[in-house]
Every structure is written in C-alpha cells, then in structure tokens.
Write a structure and sequence with these properties.
mainly alpha, two-stranded antiparallel ribbon, 7 helices, Cro/C1-type_HTH, 434 Repressor (Amino-terminal Domain), about 70% helix, 2 domains
C-alpha cells in the first residue's frame, strides 16, 4: 500500500491546486513570460529535452538544471521539487510523512498478526476495527494535507 503526499501550490497568492513537477515548471515559465525555447537555451539543454520535461515524459537528470531553474524562477529548490517554501512548511511535510509512515507500519503489523495467527472471531473483529480506524486516520491526514495545506 502506498500513500503519496503531494503539496498544494500557491503562486501569486492564489491556490493552484496540486501541481506535479512538469505542471509547475510550465506554469512558472509562462508566468515569467519565457518561451520553451528561451528557457531551454538558458538551461543549456535541447529544446526537445525541455519540452519532454514539461509534458511529464521525463525529468532532468542533472542537478545543475534544477539549480538553474531555481535561479530563473526565483524559487527555492524545496519549492521547486516539493512545493514548500519555508522551514515551517518543510517541518510540516516531514511530520506528515512520519505520521503516515507510522500509521502504515502499524496497519502492516496488525495485518501480519491478523493473517499469521489463528485468532478467535472476537480478536479478528477487534483487529479489523483497529486497522480500519488507522486507515481512515491516514486518509484524513492525506485529505487535510491535500485540501487544506495543513495537518
């Protein structure tokens, strides 16, 4: 089971929803008024490579490109890759990931106990209820993070 945490992006004070890397660079490029060709020249990459990044077909393989993108767009690397722009946001993202990871570990442990042992019906129902509550809590954390940008 995988839970992906994505960060809500705010640009120019407006909520833009959840953006993936390729969507973010396209939006930032257009807000800077640059063409794909102009930006690819500035990054010293082929226009074809840059277009494939914007389409989400591939990603830059060179750290230099990410660093240059941060300069061109005047954003931090954290913001460019994760959508977070200050230490508080970084700490919140780390805490959310740790919380979700702990929840998943607990669900996984309970599931293993449930499957590996001969449990009475009462014990099974108890464990099923606990696993369901943990799963719903994890979903709630993700929902709050995605929709409200907070935990």
């Amino acid at each position: 089971m995988f839970i992906i945490i994505e960060v809500i992006i705010y640009l120019n004070g407006k909520r833009r929803g959840i953006l993936k890397f390729h969507e973010k660079i396209k939006l930032l490029r257009s807000e800077k008024g640059l063409t794909q060709e102009e930006l690819s020249k500035r990054l010293r990459v082929s226009n074809r490579s840059y277009i494939s990044w914007e389409k989400g077909e591939s990603i830059p393989r060179d750290l230099r490109v990410y660093l240059e993108l941060t300069k061109v767009f005047s954003v931090s690397l954290d913001y460019l890759l994760l959508g977070i722009s200050n230490d508080d946001d970084i700490e919140k993202a780390i805490q959310a990931k740790e919380s979700v990871t702990k929840g998943l570990d607990a669900v996984s442990d309970l599931y293993f106990v449930f499957k590996a042992n001969n449990l009475s019906m009462k014990e099974r129902l108890f464990l099923e209820e606990k696993v369901e509550k943990m799963y719903l809590n994890i979903k709630l954390i993700n929902y709050k993070f995605e929709k409200e940008g907070e935990f």
